[in-house]
Amino acid sequence: MRKNSIKNTRINEEVLRRLSEIIRGSIKDPRINPMTSVVSVEVAPDLKTCKAYVSVLGDEQSQKDTLAGLRSAEGYIRRSLAQSANLRHTPQITFIIDQSIAYGVNMSHLIDRIQKKEQQAAPDEQSQQTGGTEDKTAGEEEA
Questions:
Q1: What are the C-alpha distances in Å from 138 to residues 101, 107, 120, 124?
Q2: What is the 3-state secondary structure (H, E, C) of the chain?
Q3: Cα→Cα distances 73→6, 16, 23, 47, 70, Å
Q4: What is the pLDDT of residues 101-125, one digit of tens each?
Q5: C-alpha of 61 from chain center
Q6: In the prediction, which pLDDT does 103 show?
Q7: Are 76 and 27 in contact (CB under 8 A)?
Q8: Of the four, 54, 104, 133, 134, which is 20 to 30 A from 14 by CA?
Q9: Is the sign of the CA dihedral 24, 28, 29, 31 positive or negative?
């Protein structure tokens, strides 16, 4: 089975859905942040391994605690996945913290800040252009 085949894509989606349900509803570990979501899943073509990208809303310590909680519950999660998903092999799951959502939010804030600065600078430029056109021509004549 190829990595981007239709079958592999369907398996990725199914494992993503099942992992989200298991993490949200079944695990009672207090280290796992309640605002944890599975962003994407990459199951290997041989169905032996799986990379689960997890996003955690919170500070860096909360992300570390959640990752530690997920790693300690790996056996339970794998067993629950085997019971709920009908796969030939239940993959060995590796949890990875995904920073893409936090990165996107940060970039959005930076873009908003730049737009506000441009909007504040635009009225200043307009007032300079109406009153400052005579100064520009006078400066050009001197040169």
A1: 53, 43, 27, 21
A2: CCCCCHHHHHHHHHHHHHHHHHHHHCCCCCCCCCCEEEEEEEECCCCCEEEEEEEECCCHHHHHHHHHHHHHCHHHHHHHHHHHCCCCCCCEEEEEECCHHHHHHHHHHHHHHHHHHHHHHHHHHHHHHHHHHHHHHHHHHHC
A3: 30, 17, 10, 20, 5
A4: 778 888 999 999 999 988 888 776 6
A5: 17
A6: 83
A7: yes
A8: 104
A9: positive
Token output for 48 = 């032996």
- CB-count exposure of residue 82 (10 Å: 0-12, 13-18, 19+): middle
Structure tokens at 115: 């737009």
Record the tokens describing residue 13, joined without a space.
């989606």
